Amino acid sequence: NGDTQALHHLIKEVAKERVHREAACSSGTPKDFAEYKNLCGVIQGLSLAESIIKDLVQKLEHDDE
Question: Is residue 1 within a helix (H) or strand (E), and if so which, with residue range?
Answer without folding.
Answer: none
